Amino acid sequence: MDIETLQSHLMYIFVLWSVVTAILIILLIYRGQLQNHEEDQIFLDKAGDGMAADQRLLVMRIEKLSRPIIALVVASIVLAAAMGVIWLWHGIRNF
């Protein structure tokens, strides 16, 4: 594999990693904003039923974000490791 091909492959992986990581950061910020609005305690009475429903919806949204965040973390780590392995392999091969 020549240097141009290697740089091309690394550039594609780097761009993909950048996109995945940017989406991950956006989801983490969004989840943080949702968690800021989550109440620690709710005193339930007849007047607080609407507030309780809002909190259940908020918790459901936060929990729904867990799977995509975990998948994006794994994808980001795998892509970063792939970039490192390709770079090291090329370095060792041309040593």
Output mean pLDDT: 87
| Computed Rg | 22 Å
Quaternary status: single chain
Mass-distribution shape? rod-shaped
Number of helices: 3
Pattern of helices and strands:
HHH
Let me know the largest β-sheet: none
The low-pLDDT segments are none
Can you walk me through this structure?
The chain is 82% helix and 0% strand. The protein has 95 residues and is mainly α. It has one domain (3-93). Helix 1 packs antiparallel against helix 3 (66-93).
Describe the secondary-structure layout.
Elements: H1 3-36, H2 49-64, H3 66-93
Helix pairs in contact: 1-3
Sum up the structure in keywords.
3 helices; mainly alpha; single chain; rod-shaped; 95 residues; 82% helix
Short description:
With 95 residues, the chain is an all-alpha fold.
